[in-house]
Design brief:
Elements: H1 2-14, H2 18-35, H3 54-72, H4 74-78, H5 84-129
């Protein structure tokens, strides 16, 4: 018969009586009164009941952390190096830009020489008139 009593104790521990729930609510309300701020409600907010098993809750936390980790390094994985065609194209573009810049500089030097020569001619002609 002792074995049957142990079984009843196990079964009783699975269920919570209404009196125990009321006692817990009173304790929570008392604790709430101690920490409650004036802008908080008078009634203690009810505990959120999660019917999922512990495994499911822990699995969700693990998945969430894994997603955050992947999101953190997502951009890092998106960056890749340039392939040979891309590097050749960029080299060609930089060579063309250098040629354009060189031509522009030569043209500016040519115009400066012409301007200086014109200034010399004008200066000589003005001296002759004096």
């Amino acid at each position: 018969m002792d074995g049957g009593d142990d079984g009843n104790l196990i079964i009783k521990k699975r269920f919570v009586s209404e009196a125990e729930l009321d006692e817990r609510r009173k304790r929570r309300q008392e604790e709430w009164e101690k920490v409650r701020k004036p802008e908080d409600p008078e009634e203690c907010p009810e505990e959120v009941y999660d019917p999922r098993s512990l495994y499911e809750r822990l699995q969700e936390q693990k998945d969430r952390k894994q997603q955050e980790y992947e999101e953190q390094f997502k951009f890092k994985n998106m960056v890749r190096g340039l392939d040979e065609d891309e590097t050749n194209f960029l080299d060609e573009v930089s060579r063309q830009q250098e040629l354009i810049e060189k031509q522009r500089r030569e043209e500016e030097l040519k115009e400066l020489k012409e301007y200086r020569n014109n200034l010399k001619k004008v200066g000589i002609s003005q001296e002759n008139k004096k």
